[in-house]
């Protein structure tokens, strides 16, 4: 699939900065794609390496390219700026659940209620948690997050990962 290189203005949808990807550009990236499309993106040739993200469908064949804060920081851009966009289909993307780290698997299986809570989650929510945990680097951060995840999956009412949890959901 061909990369798309073009100039565009960074727009704002509610609170989310984005660049519009036309139906023609989306078709050139991956013909017939209607769900979130995995791509590699650079704005003004930044960041390096390109950022992995999903284009979000608008429903008419066009897509939103939401710009993560790290991309805008790396490219020194803001809403309203005209930018050079480089986007290409990410053929290496593999969907589905991520591998569960052993440092989360052991405490999860040691708690039957948390395990039931985990199994009751949708696959996308499980993947969201695993992706979040995969970014944790320090042992302290891992321990804090595992403890909190086990509590919310066991049914505790508290905030975790920017959402309110109750009864394991």
SSE layout and pairing:
Layout: E1 4-9, E2 11-13, E3 16-21, H1 23-29, E4 37-43, E5 46-57, E6 63-66, H2 69-75, E7 82-89, H3 102-109, H4 112-120, H5 123-134, H6 139-153, E8 158-160, E9 163-165
Antiparallel strand pairs: 1-7, 2-3, 3-6, 4-5, 4-7, 5-6, 8-9
Which short descriptors sum up this protein?
169 residues, alpha+beta, Elongation Factor Tu (Ef-tu), domain 3, 2 domains, two-stranded antiparallel sheet, 9 strands, elongated
| Average predicted confidence as pLDDT | 91
The name of the CATH topology of the largest domain is Elongation Factor Tu (Ef-tu), domain 3
Fraction in helix: 25-40%
How many strands? Answer: 9
Which architecture name of the largest domain does CATH use? Beta Barrel
Instruction: Give the strand line-up of the largest sheet.
Output: 1-7-4-5-6-3-2
Task: Give the amount of beta strand, in percent.
Answer: 25-35%
Assigned CATH superfamily of the largest domain: AF2212/PG0164-like
Give the CA-based shape. elongated
Structure classification = alpha+beta
From the N-terminal CA to the C-terminal CA, the straight-line distance is 39 Å
> How many helix segments?
6
Largest sheet: 7 strands, antiparallel
Low-confidence stretches: none
């Amino acid at each position: 699939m061909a990369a798309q290189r073009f100039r565009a203005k960074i727009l704002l949808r509610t609170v989310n900065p984005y660049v519009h990807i036309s139906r023609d550009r989306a078709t050139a990236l991956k013909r017939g794609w209607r769900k979130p499309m995995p791509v590699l993106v650079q704005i003004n040739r930044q960041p390096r390496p390109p950022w992995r993200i999903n284009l979000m469908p608008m429903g008419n064949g066009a897509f939103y390219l939401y710009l993560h804060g790290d991309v805008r920081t790396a490219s020194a851009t803001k809403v309203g700026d005209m930018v050079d966009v480089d986007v290409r289909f990410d053929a290496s993307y593999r969907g589905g659940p991520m591998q569960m780290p052993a440092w989360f698997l052991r405490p999860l299986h040691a708690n039957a209620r948390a395990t039931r809570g985990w199994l009751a989650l949708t696959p996308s929510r499980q993947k969201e948690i695993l992706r979040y945990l995969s970014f944790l680097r320090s042992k302290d951060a891992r321990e804090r997050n595992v403890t909190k995840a086990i509590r919310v999956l066991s049914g505790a009412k508290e905030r975790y990962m920017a959402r309110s949890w109750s009864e394991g959901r």
